[in-house]
Design a protein that fits this description.
Structural class: alpha/beta
Helix content: 40-55%
Largest sheet: 5 strands, parallel
Number of strands: 13
Distance between the termini: 75 Å
Length: 409
C-alpha cells in the first residue's frame, strides 16, 4: 500500500522521514494480529495509527473501539473493559458487556494504557496471553478474539522501575513498537500544517485565510511546540479568530506563544557516583568553605589593623582564637602566613592567598580527607548527616572513608 494514499485517506500531512517510517511499520504490521505499542508525546497524533492498522487489517469489517484509559475512574475501569453481572456492585441493575466482548473479532485501542490500575493490568495480561477474561461479579470464563493496540506518552521503562506498570505486560504490548516523532523534529512540516489549519478555519467560518511572512515562518519552525500538533492548531485558530490583519508578522505571532522568550531552566542532574565526579563535588565544597574562611580572615585582619597597635598584633596572647565558618579553628597568630602585610584592605586578590603553604600539603587526597573528617566530627560521627553536609550520598561517603583510610573521627 502506498504511503501517500494512506496520508490522503487519514488527512496526515508532511514528509518527515520518521513519520513515514512509523506509517510503514503500521501498514506492515496491519496484516498480522501482533500487539502494537505506540509511543510519543501528547498531541503528536498517535490516535491515527490504530485506525490505520485496523483499516488495513483482516479485521477491518469488525468493531473498532477506542478507549481512553485515563478518563475512566479506577473503580469502574474493570466493568467498562470486561463487563459485569447484575448485582455485582451497587448500581449494577443489569448485565453489561465490556469493550473486550463487544470488540470480539475486531480491534480495541487502549489510549493512555499506562493509566490502568495494576489489578486491571493483570486482567489485560491474561487476555493477551490466553484470550480469556471474566466479567466483574462472575466466575465464568469467557473467550474473546481481539487485536490490541495501545498508546502512551509516558516512559514505561521508568514506570516499571517505579512499580507503576507491569514489566510482563509491557513486553506483551510492545511486540511491535511504533514511535511517533514530536512536532519540533518535523520542522519542514510545521508551516504546511499551519497553512492547512488556517485554511480549514477560513473555509469553516467563511473568512480570509491568514498567512505568515518569512520571519514569522522561521519563528514558527524554531518554536518548541510542547503541545505538538494540538497546540499548533490551537494557535492557528486563535490568530484566525482574533487578528484583523490577515498578514501575520513575527511580532504578532509571539503574542500567541507566551513562553517563547522564557529562558531554559537548568536541568536537574542525578548524582553520578563515579570517582571523578564525586571528588569534584567534594572539592567544590572545600573551595566554598575556603572562600568563607578567607572572608572571615579579612574581617579579622581589618579589625586588628584598626587598633593601630603593633604590639598587640605581634603578641600571640592578645590575638583571639578564631573559628571559621567551615568549623576550622584558626589562631590569629597564623595569619601572617596566610595574608600578605600589604593586603589588609578590601581589595584582597585570591591569587595572594595561601602563597606560602607547601604544595605537598594541598594534595587533593588531603583536602578530601580533612573535609570529610570535619563533617564527621561536626555531626558526632553520624555518616548520614555528614553526607548531607558534603552534598554526597551516604554510600559514596562510606566508600571515600575506606579509600582514604579514615579510621577514627
Amino acid at each position: 500500500m502506498d504511503i501517500q494514499t494512506v496520508k490522503q485517506r487519514f488527512g496526515i500531512i508532511g514528509s518527515n522521514a520518521e513519520m513515514n517510517r512509523a506509517l510503514e511499520v503500521a501498514l506492515r504490521v496491519a496484516a498480522t494480529d501482533l500487539s502494537v505499542l505506540i509511543t510519543g508525546e501528547s498531541g503528536v497524533g498517535k490516535e491515527f495509527f490504530p485506525q490505520i492498522i485496523h483499516a488495513y487489517s483482516p479485521r477491518k469489517h469488525g468493531n473498532y473501539i477506542a478507549v481512553n484509559c485515563g478518563a475512566i475512574p479506577e473503580g469502574t475501569i474493570d466493568s467498562e473493559l470486561f463487563g459485569h453481572e447484575k448485582g455485582a456492585f451497587t448500581g449494577a441493575t443489569e448485565n453489561r458487556k465490556g469493550y473486550f466482548e463487544v470488540a470480539d473479532g475486531g480491534t480495541i485501542f487502549l489510549d493512555e494504557v499506562a493509566e490502568l490500575p495494576l489489578t486491571t493490568q493483570v486482567r489485560l495480561l491474561r487476555i493477551l496471553q490466553t484470550g480469556e477474561f471474566m466479567k466483574v461479579g462472575s466466575s465464568k470464563i469467557q473467550k474473546t478474539n481481539v487485536r490490541v493496540v495501545a498508546a502512551t506518552n509516558i516512559n514505561l521503562n521508568q514506570a516499571i522501575s517505579e512499580s507503576k506498570f507491569r514489566e510482563d505486560l509491557y513486553y506483551r504490548l510492545n511486540t511491535v513498537p511504533i514511535v511517533v516523532p514530536p512536532l519540533r523534529e518535523r520542522k519542514k512540516d510545521i508551516n504546511i500544517l499551519f497553512r492547512k489549519f488556517a485554511s480549514d478555519i477560513a473555509h469553516q467560518y467563511r473568512m480570509p485565510s491568514i498567512s505568515l511572512n518569512d520571519e514569522a515562518k522561521k519563528l514558527l519552525e524554531n518554536y518548541s511546540w510542547k503541545g505538538n500538533i494540538r497546540q499548533l492548531k490551537n494557535v492557528a485558530e486563535q490568530i484566525s479568530a482574533i487578528e484583523e490583519t490577515r498578514d501575520i508578522t513575527a511580532e504578532v505571532l509571539k503574542k500567541y506563544l507566551p513562553d517563547y522568550d522564557m529562558p531554559h531552566l537548568p536541568m536537574i542532574v542525578k548524582e553520578n557516583n563515579s570517582h571523578s565526579e564525586t571528588d569534584r563535588d567534594l572539592l567544590y565544597k572545600i573551595l566554598f568553605d575556603m572562600k568563607g574562611d578567607i572572608n572571615d580572615l579579612k574581617k579579622m585582619v581589618l579589625e586588628l589593623s584598626s587598633r593601630n597597635d603593633a604590639a598587640s598584633f605581634n603578641s600571640n596572647s592578645d590575638i583571639p582564637h578564631f573559628t571559621s565558618s567551615s568549623g576550622l579553628s584558626l589562631p590569629a597568630a597564623s595569619t601572617p602566613y596566610l595574608v600578605s602585610e600589604n593586603n589588609y584592605h578590601d581589595e584582597f586578590a585570591d591569587s595572594e592567598v595561601v602563597d606560602d603553604i607547601p604544595p605537598e600539603e594541598m594534595t587533593k587526597e588531603k583536602m578530601l580527607r580533612d573535609q570529610i573528617l570535619r563533617a564527621l566530627r561536626k555531626h558526632g560521627g553520624k555518616r548520614k548527616e555528614a553526607a548531607k553536609d558534603l552534598f554526597i550520598s551516604e554510600r559514596t561517603l562510606y566508600r571515600k572513608i575506606k579509600e582514604l583510610g579514615i579510621d577514627e573521627y
